[in-house]
Known about the structure:
The structure is a homodimer. By secondary structure, the first copy, chain A, is α/β, with parallel strands linked by helices.
Amino acid sequence: MIQARMEELGRKAKEAARYLMLASTDQKNQALQEMARALTAKSEEILSANQMDMEEGRRKGLSTTLLDRLMLSQKRIEEMAEGLLALAALPDPVGEVVEMHRRPNGLEVGKVRVPLGVVGIIYEARPNVTADAAGLCLKTGNAIILRGGSEAFNSNQAIARVLADAAMAAGIHEGAIQLVDTTDREAANILMRMNRYVDVLIPRGGAGLIQTVVNSATVPVIETGVGNCHTFVDQDADLDMALEIAINAKCQRPSVCNAMESLLVHEAVAEEFLPRLASAMQERQVELRGCERFQVIHPGIKAATESDWETEFLDFILAVKVVKDLDEAMEHINRYGTGHSEAIVTRSYERARRFMAGVDAAAVFVNASTRFTDGFQFGLGAEIGISTQKLHARGPMGLKELTSTKYIIYGNGQIRQ
Amino acid sequence: MIQARMEELGRKAKEAARYLMLASTDQKNQALQEMARALTAKSEEILSANQMDMEEGRRKGLSTTLLDRLMLSQKRIEEMAEGLLALAALPDPVGEVVEMHRRPNGLEVGKVRVPLGVVGIIYEARPNVTADAAGLCLKTGNAIILRGGSEAFNSNQAIARVLADAAMAAGIHEGAIQLVDTTDREAANILMRMNRYVDVLIPRGGAGLIQTVVNSATVPVIETGVGNCHTFVDQDADLDMALEIAINAKCQRPSVCNAMESLLVHEAVAEEFLPRLASAMQERQVELRGCERFQVIHPGIKAATESDWETEFLDFILAVKVVKDLDEAMEHINRYGTGHSEAIVTRSYERARRFMAGVDAAAVFVNASTRFTDGFQFGLGAEIGISTQKLHARGPMGLKELTSTKYIIYGNGQIRQ
């Protein structure tokens, strides 16, 4: 039964993708504008569906944080609509010929950017992902199959219905935007193995969700998000700058993947820097967990355990370690880091270059906060997630990362010898 | 026991990758030259290992084709060595800054090409893949874990040992080139799930092997190779050209993935073209399987079944169908094709463009043979396989496709507002 419904979804998405692949930029932009208008026009319908989810959530005892993520308001709906309009204004990556050259036999061989086809998104609480992801995929000519969290089921359904209707009214083929209309886990399991219909899966959510998708999917997955990020304060760092960067990386928004979780400091500046760090962090209610040397310098600091070096706290907690040099810092980062965002604060040309080359992560910073790892901050205009894998896309993924390429070859009768 | 050995392999590869990532182009090229020299110098050792595999193969009753693939000779070893020297002469993709721009806040955000890390290759019979894949990975700064077929176990071991020793002698870190030293299937299963150590898996072989890897792996996979390729002869095609292209695409080397398996012909030229096609193909011992209309035009042709449209024959067999127009041809291709290589023969500007845009495949040709889908023919200089998926790489994969990128960000104290 669920199998049949999912097959139907897949078949429709695949068919829609064939048409979307050929849609003009104007047509896609008109659909995005139509979708934005519809969200505003039908906000009451969406808000009342959200109300049902909120009540159910309260009844189930969801945490305040989760309830806040789940909650929609007129303002949040406006933001979704603005996001769609912003997408309409961005350049269309589809159709760009990224290379073209002539071979000795006269064949002209090139590569053109094309949609991926059908994108599956498996995500948790926030209902705004429904609109963001649908917009990003429509802009890039991909059909989307959305599988949201059960807490936001009614909200997601309402949003997806409004968007799908608006897209169809604008001439986009049916099936371009679809939401899995059951909360049964089996549906997600089927989606993860529908290689015949789905070209790529992007999980968006916590480490647990991402791990489940990576382990169960046979469809190619883009892994996103887990960030155990470090900042290394080098021996000749500008310590005022280092302090500002550390405070920003830890405190500006601790619940996100590009926030700093551990700080490493060169022993040559540890005695000068750490007391300043400690008082600045304690002032901001950050719990510090330090190595033995930090505890000697600043008695009363809680001891950091092995597991603290591995943990993405996503909270006002910071692990701190004194290291003897750049090499030890890099070893620590490459060992415990998740390959997300890593920063060095230094005045040394040589050590900045060594850190850049030797740290294996999606984004490596010199003298800036790790909080900048973000599609908008990097100038991509939009973001579907932050890839922490090395295939296809690494770091913030914008519109280009939602495309593939195909080889196009123009001949005049060439045959192979 | 096997688990522990595989862990050891993975750990060593990961460590080697950390050093390889930093190796200079000169150092990598010297290693490739050293590896080429060693293959020639130790050819006797390799040939005698191959002799063992050949004897075992004969004893087991392997087919002549398989035995031919398995067999090494002085000449084939020289070809492997030449392949490594050719790699040394190619430009190094690692370190290329593929983009860099300045943000309004003064941050300079760029992307640099870096190795993938650790590449796993799971492959079948041909022992030359051992040298080719090891060379490609070394050139691109990746550590490689090779898992060859059991028929070539001794040959692969000998080649891998010679290459690993030569690379180490040239100063490359131990663990850069490793072969799984057991034929136990469990080892392959473990390799496919070693996400902690392996960044990407590339299966090379028949459809069965590739399907197994796609279904079992949790490590990201690049799917390669299966090619159910078509040529469409349009209503105003130059029929002489169409015939030459069809003969080349079918007969020049039928056992490979870019060979044509089905030919589609517009009904307007079917009566003129098909008798010529039939006699040319029959002259070359190609078995034809036709639709009903072909059978009417040319009585005595065997009927094509539904399964013929789906089959990658890899043999002197060709399925032929008369279609009423370009749309029917494109529908047929998008339905039965495997997204590998598809060609149209036409004089029409409009229909060439429609075919290019509407056919969803790794390589789409106008007026040329599908046999050109190949890294060397496309000018990539080398090839690790032909991707038929849309993530990361599509079509022939050269050196660039064995790299990832990382964001590099240069600041002077920027923090996020």
